[in-house]
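Researcher: Here's a chain I'd like modeled. Treat it as a single chain, no partners, no ligands.
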Amino acid sequence: MTTTTDPSIFSAPMPIDLGKTKVPIRERLHIPRLGVLAGMVWLIGLSVLTILANYFPAAVPFIRDYDAKVKVDGKVKRYGWGPGWNAWFGTGKSAEDIFAHCIYGAKVTLTIGIGATLVGLIVGGILGVASGYFRGWTDRIGSIFTDCLLSIPPLLLALILILRLDDLKDIYSWLGWLTRTWQITLTLGLIAVAPFARIVRAQTLTLREREFVTAARSLGASRSRIIFRELLPNLVPAMVTVAFTGLGILIAAEAGLAFLGLGVERPHTWGKMIDIARDDIEKAWWATVFPCLMLFLTVLSFNVLGDELARRFDIREAAV
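Model: Modeled as a single isolated chain. Structure tokens:
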């Protein structure tokens, strides 16, 4: 009896589909998400309009001067115009153009936010790198300093510092340069030191044990060389990512201080504009809503960009 064997059992096995993960075309081509693009467009457009209005006003004739009054039938009238062609965002309590004031106020708001972020990033970065790399007593002293800052409510600390700086300015003439803009910038910068220092310290603790740092140390590299040539370049992505998120928070904090009466008097920032018009929101909603909208979109844009950078660089942020 002859037995026939099916030749198919000796054939090569069929390849098994392991289900490869399909990467979206947007990620393969490194195309930013729609929210990121919208945030970038908003921040770039706001920055360009702010620079042109303050330094090249002839280039933006549709933005009125800060002191210009929008008249109704030749007369100055409180909240005379609502949003429209005569005044895009309507007019305010003193017949001012709300749109123009939003643009001029953006200069102060962005200046304070960026300045406070730089102060917090530089001081906090130095403190975090020193604590994370040297450890020991340096780490203990740095941790005590950051814990003390974090133990005080930020709003209470800001109120105390700004009011005290006002008193010192009146006592000492050499503090004449300490305007309200500088007071808020330095105060918010000090508040930002502790969160930035903690994040940089955590990243430094991770990097100091990496192979390239160990190799540089075994080759006899000095501490300064290791910090500036090995650690710092790898810390920059984390610091930039946290800076974007922190910038949005500091801008919101400045608006909160202005709402409490501690803002810059001229030009009015968005928080100050909200404070001035809040009692008249029922009859002139635009004087409050549009500064709120400017603040919301700006903070949201910085947060979206910060989240995108964190995802790109795989940064695990601590709470800011």
